[in-house]
């Protein structure tokens, strides 16, 4: 962290800001600000503000000016982080500056036909200038998407698509998985990234049910079906969420024609579903085959490390400092999906704020009971050992021995990994209970398990199965 030039950098920023706003407003909103630090590697400057209200006002009134000034002084990679120092004696809070901008499409011309009957052979359709709302939520960006083994392949494919939409083998991209695993977030992140790199491309996000409803409205209004198809054929990047809801022969036939037209002209297609293409029910075979043309990626339940990472990043975005012990508890208890985990964190913050209580493991326990129910059983190092031994069909003496057979070593390492992630105890305690190993051995075992989970699908299934036995998904 470079602490030498952050003051001069901020003074240069203030000089430019002073030239663009009224003196009184400058004295009120910018004179109290102080630069705390600057990181050359990331281009991040930390600015101390006197209150959270002050920060919120700057975000609402002067964010665009701040972005332009920082970009000019620091460079295109400039990032702003606020440090709020409360009046009362309490830890300072940090907030990242808002970076998202709601994407907007260019105006396009869409062919329209007269409403009074079919046009004759020499009647040309009219041209209507329309503004297609991309319907992208700027919060669902890649910057706010936590990457883990559960979604790494999808994120990699998504970033490749955003670099060259319609020009990769991943067209269409079909994302599938259970509820709350980030399908919508990833699909919208692709659209947002494309708009950032290619502002002239027309991007549209729509759900399968919305497409079906629009089709039904079009066929019930004379001569509007042609307008409906002409509208969709102007799209450069079409994102259809929950495509399993696209039921009905007519709507599927319309979508089939839209798909063929867009794919023929190398337009990018992204679909999400709660099930794999092969499991889609009541879909025409010719449409199913097209959904399988590109790349199908399953988003899986996040592992412990990814859940913990998500909690840390959300705390940073909310400007809240929560003890690592509490975050570890939440990550260990709620593991079915990101949505429940994020909901538990927000509920915990809100509850602590309303009742003016510190955020503790006990309070987190109360919140999680409302979401996933009471803990089925108290997890101990002994219970971890028993589940691991039963899973691999070995005795506890064998697990705790110095045997170096591959299966025994992996079972021992998984037991250490689970004990560290699911139980609030030290590495030294875990080592002592697992054959008298030192803390360095336990740490090495945890690292080894994490590495193997990212490269070995069979080993990852071992860990997932054992975790489900210890903490069943509710």
Topology summary:
Layout: H1 6-18, H2 23-29, E1 34-39, E2 44-49, H3 52-73, E3 79-84, E4 93-96, E5 107-112, E6 126-131, H4 152-163, E7 173-176, H5 183-197, E8 203-207, H6 208-219, H7 224-232, E9 237-241, H8 249-264, E10 268-273, H9 285-291, E11 295-298, H10 304-318, H11 324-333, H12 338-354, H13 361-372, H14 381-392, H15 396-400, H16 406-422, H17 427-433, H18 439-455, H19 457-470
Parallel strand pairs: 2-3, 7-10, 7-11, 8-9, 9-10
Antiparallel strand pairs: 1-2, 3-4, 5-6
Helix pairs in contact: 1-3, 4-5, 6-7, 6-8, 10-11, 10-12, 11-13, 12-13, 14-16, 16-18, 17-18, 18-19
Strand content is 5-15%
Report how far apart the termini are: 44 Å
Number of helices: 19
Rounded to an integer in angstroms, the radius of gyration calculated over CA atoms is: 27 Å
Strand elements, count: 11
Main sheet: strands, sense, barrel: 5 strands, parallel
Alpha-beta classification: alpha/beta
Mean pLDDT, all residues: 82
List the uncertain runs.
115-127
Relative helix content: 40-55%
Molecular structure report:
- 32% of the residues are buried.
- β1 and β2 form a beta hairpin.
- α6 packs antiparallel against α7, α10 crosses α12 and α12 packs across α13 (361-372).
- With 474 residues, this protein is an alpha/beta fold.
- The protein is globular.
- It has 19 helices and 11 strands.
- The chain has helices spanning 6-18, 23-29, 52-73, 152-163, 183-197, 208-219, 224-232, 249-264, 285-291, 304-318, 324-333, 338-354, 361-372, 381-392, 396-400, 406-422, 427-433, 439-455, 457-470; strands at residues 34-39, 44-49, 79-84, 93-96, 107-112, 126-131, 173-176, 203-207, 237-241, 268-273, 295-298.
- Helices cover 50% and strands 12% of the residues.
